[in-house]
Amino acid sequence: MTILPVIPTSPDTPDAVVTRRRPAMPPRHLADLDLAGRRAAVTELGEPAFRAQQLSTHYFGRLVRDPAAMTDLPAASRAKLTEDLLPMLLTPQRELACDDGATRKTLWKLHDNAMVESVLMGYPDRITACVSSQAGCGMACPFCATGQAGLTRNLSVAEIVDQVVYLAGVAASGAVTGSPPRLSRVVFMGMGEPLANYPRVIEAVRRLVAPAPEGLGLSQRHITVSTVGLVPAMRRFIAEGLSVTLALSLHAPDDDLRDELVPVNQRWKVAEVLDAAFDYAAQTGRRISIEYALIRDVNDQPWRADLLGRLLHGKLAHVNLIPLNPTPGSKWDASPKPVEREFVRRLRDAGVATTVRDTRGREIDGACGQLAASELTVVDAGGAVADAEVAR
Ligand code: SAH
What we know:
The chain is an alpha/beta fold. Helices cover 31% and strands 19% of the residues. It has eleven helices and 13 strands. The chain has helices at residues 35-44, 50-61, 75-85, 145-149, 157-172, 198-209, 231-239, 255-261, 270-284, 302-312, 337-349, and strands at residues 2-4, 91-98, 103-109, 115-123, 126-130, 134-136, 151-154, 183-188, 223-227, 245-249, 288-294, 317-323, 353-356. The strands form two sheets. It has an eleven-stranded mixed beta sheet, with helices on one face. A two-stranded antiparallel sheet has the order 6-7. Helix 6 links the parallel strand 8 and strand 9. Helix 1 (35-44) crosses helix 2 (50-61) and helix 7 (231-239) runs parallel beside helix 9. The chain starts with a strand and ends in a 36-residue tail after the last strand. 52% of the residues are buried. The model is unreliable at 7-20 and 376-392 (pLDDT under 50). Bound molecules: S-adenosyl-L-homocysteine. S-adenosyl-L-homocysteine is lined by residues 139, 141, 143-144, 189, 193, 226-228, 249, 291, 293, 322, 324-325, 327, 368-369, 384, 386.
């Protein structure tokens, strides 16, 4: 593991709001607005409308987040625009790397001292960013470190987008050796439940896919939104007309066990959640990804593999098995490899495409379920990371 120097960011940002009571949303930022909104905002500041384009080209086109580096702006304009549209939302607290620099975790402090994490994962053919959508998480899944700490607050659109812009900048700098210098995939698999922060996550997705300079110009197919299965929000998601990849954290094919592993199942049952996921697949023509953390003697029995196989047979779905990652104080372990292999075999025999996710970032607590809000008390905690397998 390598502890990396924190990349300096602009010092002159308004911090005046830090003492507000939680949950306090951050100040407005360029990335909260679409291009028309940015034009209106700069005009209100008495600046010509073309400044919106100029700022957007810096931020989304060139991945410049530091206003001091936007040297083509006249000093007086820059000060005004910085204060109103480019407040520093994320302050890097710590960066950790493993896998020879191919996996990097950034711990961020937000304007109100809430903490979140993002992870960058480099592969020979792609770079994936795993981003947080909330500080903490309210879903209370007992095997997930983030779930143990509870929810602090939703992230704003710009707080989500800024994680991606930052990581795209790291990718562009060539720091991820052995990978192409372009961030191409984003997975909403960091801290938080994306569909519990619904409007902001949708808006963030729109910003990520809008062509530059309005947004980052990523392909919808290369964005994955992962959910515990909030059915009404999934239904709303279907109606958005997006074609991003949907991942469903199932973890058990039966209600008895899922009620325990994913407590929201007490409200929306396996059948209902799968129905919503299948409807999304039918609407978009895109295969859904079923996430299943394999936990020794808990959900890894052959009969559960068979039941899962029956539920998914003939559906536009594939299973992504995640060897359980260790979390502080957890009584659970990953399944032994032979058990995992048998689980995979049974699913494949049932005609269900199945992959086993690598455990990227474990060493830096950056793997799935290891991202925790409590970095202040727990050394090296982290949010959940996802392998890009799901976004293929
Ligand atoms: N709340 C969303 C987004 C988080 S994604 C969701 O649950 O889908 C993080 C993924 O990692 C989820 O599939 C989650 O269930 C899984 N996960 C959580 N803790 C884990 C652990 N300890 N080991 C392996 N996977 C874990």
